[in-house]
């Protein structure tokens, strides 16, 4: 007999968790290993209980569904559970993310679970950051970044970010004198940030324009941006042009 | 833009009206001892047409000095001065015409053949005083006519604005009705009912009845023009009761309702978007939840309603409930105009929605 599928239930509403518990309890081969009321608890419990799949509500206190997904082990399958959110649903369809709409049937639930597990086995999980960005209504941007800091989870408001630097397969975030590393691409970060306040000045660097103090001429044709915390960020030719345009527009 | 010049079709009829003016001027100029009929006509008709154009200039001072706002001495000075200047210009133009008539050779030749026209130049000096007087009178007449025109336009504008207000109010009402059927709310409710079926069947009936009751009442109330604050708050309470099934102990309700406030009338479902925001963007963001506070009081002839809730200031940005706020603001503006005050204040970790309207 194959091992049971271990699932974790995450929803801030007790009745919603009750429904999932009841229905999943009747799906053969499924074992519920935990139930959480917010995204932060979910990440912590998942690290210990090591589920195969997680059912995630989207709108939750502390960390929302997308943020929790970013921090979950990539081998864990994710199924989103939402009442009604037309932007999110569109994003799910486009990015082939598994989801169920409240209220849902047992059949639908079992199907979504099966597909999510298959997807993780074959292609790996869709990028949570990109998914979150696609689910945001137009005109809304990333307001905070969640990163792992050893055993802890840190939430960085983007207004406190100095700059972000691309490093191999990850991005380094500099904020309040500290640096944090997160596996993600600089490009997806650039897509999520407010273009009026953050600018990609170089292939490997995004700066917070509110932290910019001045731009110096470095060598003959290259510039360097000096930030309030003293960081010196290289600025490419295109970056410089974009910077000038933005700053002029700001005045 | 001058209303007559603004439309092509109007200029020609207006100029045609200058012909009778020309005839009157001819009569004036051809009085016994002055010009002959032919002379008078030759000068009067052109002058009439010229005045038709000159008279249009009264539009600008009339528009900048509305009768209701300007003081009489200023009006007299302004229009009187303009009358004198315009009339003087007119008379001078008349002199120019006369000069032309005198010196145009064919005309002079004609005047040889028709001695009636000769001497037109010398006779003009005698015509100046009566012409000037008429010019001033005509200008003042033009001023009066322009004020009438302005009043007419103002009335039309007021009518248009009134119609627009009615439209806005109707739109806002429609939106208010639509907003009762917030999809999020309904689907969450149905899901909760589905949940209770498995865990607490007796509560299912209670919840279905609660939800049906709330929907029915809000639809019914939407048809009325206004309802007492007490009833509006009772609707808010039933909405919160339904939401409490989802949030359990996370949702608490505090009230501070003064009896004097309860009887005042408000538009139906005015508070619904605000109460929904308090739950969805407030209580739902907090793991431990919080209390939604409803406050209503009457002070003199003002009714004050406050809806307060805590929220997590660090929560990721979501659709912020701005649509609900806008709806409330638009409704209040359409119904009370500048007499209504609405403020949505974000304090550090609390949100306040404050409404102040005339107490009725």
Walk me through this protein's architecture.
The complex is a heterodimer of chains A (251) and B (360). With 251 residues, chain A is α/β, with parallel strands linked by helices. Chain A has eight helices and 15 strands. Chain A has helices spanning 14-24, 39-49, 65-71, 86-94, 106-122, 128-135, 186-192, 237-250; strands at residues 5-10, 30-36, 53-57, 77-82, 99-101, 144-149, 152-157, 161-167, 170-175, 178-182, 198-202, 205-208, 212-217, 223-227, 232-235. In chain A, helix 3 (65-71) runs antiparallel to helix 6 (128-135). The mean pLDDT of chain A is 91. Chain B is α+β, with helices and mostly antiparallel strands. Chain B has two domains: 3-166, no CATH class; 180-358, 2-Layer Sandwich (Heat Shock Protein 90), CATH 3.30.565. In chain B, the strands form two sheets. In chain B, strands 2-4-5-7-6 form a five-stranded mixed beta sheet. Chain B has a two-stranded antiparallel ribbon with strand order 1-3. The A-B interface holds A 12-16, 18-19, 22, 37-38, 59, 61-62, 64, 67, 83-85, 101-104, 136-137, 140-144, 155, 157 and B 183-184, 187-188, 190-196, 198-199, 245-248, 284-287, 312, 314-319.
Could you name the CATH class of the largest domain in chain B?
Alpha Beta
Order of strands, main sheet of chain B, comes to 2-4-5-7-6
Total count of strands of chain A: 15
Order of helices and strands of chain A: EHEHEHEHEHHEEEEEHEEEEEH
Mean pLDDT across residues of chain A: 91
Average pLDDT reading of chain B? 83
**Element string of chain B (H = helix, E = strand):** HHHHHHHHHHEHEHEHEEHEE
Cα end-to-end separation of chain A: 69 Å
CATH class group of the largest domain in chain A = Alpha Beta
Oligomer: heterodimer
Please tally the helical runs of chain A, counting DSSP H or I stretches of 4 or more residues. Answer: 8
Strand content of chain A: 25-35%
Strand order of the largest sheet of chain A: 2-1-3-4-5
**Helicity of chain B, as a percent range:** 55-70%
- Percent strand of chain B equals 5-15%
**In whole angstroms, how far apart are the ends of chain B?**
44 Å
User: Going by CATH, what is the homologous superfamily of the largest domain in chain A?
Assistant: Response regulator
Helix-and-strand structural type of chain A? alpha/beta
Largest interface, chains and sizes: A-B, 31 and 28 residues
Shape descriptor of chain B reads rod-shaped
